Amino acid sequence: MASRLNPYISFSGDARQAMEFYRSVLGGDLSLNGYGDSMPQVPPGYEDKIMHAMLETDSGFTLMAADVPPGMEHKPGNNYAVSLSGDDADELRGYWEKLSAGGNVAVPLEKQMWGDVFGMCTDKFGITWMVNISERG
Predict the structure, then answer these.
(1) Per the domain annotation, does 75 fall within a domain?
(2) Position 22 pLDDT exceeds 90
């Protein structure tokens, strides 16, 4: 396997729901491994929590996630965003519509001063997404 770089997002108990949502947005194959599947003794409350999830799409996207492990604090921040970019306007607009539904739009998806169509939203799980549609030259 070649090396790759991809987002790995931590959730506080709703990783399964978030990853199933992202599969509904992006398509692809989702694998879910729960704490209960991998540990002989599961801490109370972790029977249905996700230890590792991976979504791989036909477009070549990989998104990984997990519920924070027992004893770790969940510290969401604003120092990251997941970015989707390319020149397939219909595909990217479709992702935007689904990701922004039920969330908060910080920058509407529209033509920007640099010439591309760009938008930024926070989805219903608190994850920030940036979508950039490149104008073909």
Answers:
(1) no
(2) yes
Compute the half-sphere exposure of residue 105: CA atoms within 13 Å on the CB side of its CA: 14
Looking at residue 73, what is its pLDDT?
A: 86
Helix 15-26, helix 89-100: angle, nearest 10: 150
Residue with tokens 């996207």: 61
Q: With a cut of 90, say whether residue 61 has pLDDT above it.
A: yes
pTM for the full model?
A: 0.86
Last-in-domain residue among 67, 94, 118: 67
